[in-house]
Design goal:
Structural class: mainly beta
CATH superfamily: Nucleic acid-binding proteins
CATH class: Mainly Beta
CATH architecture: Beta Barrel
Shape: globular
Strand order of the largest sheet: 3-2-1-4-5
Number of domains: 1
Strand content: 35-45%
Helix content: under 10%
Order of helices and strands: EEEEEH
CATH topology: OB fold (Dihydrolipoamide Acetyltransferase, E2P)
Distance between the termini: 53 Å
Radius of gyration: 17 Å
Number of strands: 5
């Protein structure tokens, strides 16, 4: 299933993913290592699109095996490409 990160607490290591009109709880242990930050912590960026396996638990819906889809909003790979000659001062 595909969803969007609705909220994420870096300090607590959990948040919610919104998909198909439902909020799915997500714990850092269920986040792919591909989404780890520079310090090695598994984090999600609010607004990022992710894929996950939905599960029903006794505490409500949960997102398992959360992995990236596409580029994060703050990922430089998603930014437009600027040609070097446009950055050079005129001669």
């Amino acid at each position: 299933m595909t969803g969007t990160v609705k909220s994420w607490s870096r300090e607590r290591g959990w948040g919610f993913v919104l998909a198909a009109g439902r909020s799915y709880f997500c714990h850092y242990k269920d986040v792919s290592p591909a989404l780890a930050s520079a310090d090695g912590r598994r984090n999600l960026t609010v607004g990022r699109e992710v894929e996950f396996e939905p599960a029903e638990t006794d505490r409500g819906p949960k997102a398992l095996d959360v992995r990236p889809t596409g580029a994060a909003p703050d990922d430089p790979a998603a930014w437009p490409v600027v040609r070097a000659e446009l950055l050079a001062p005129p001669t």
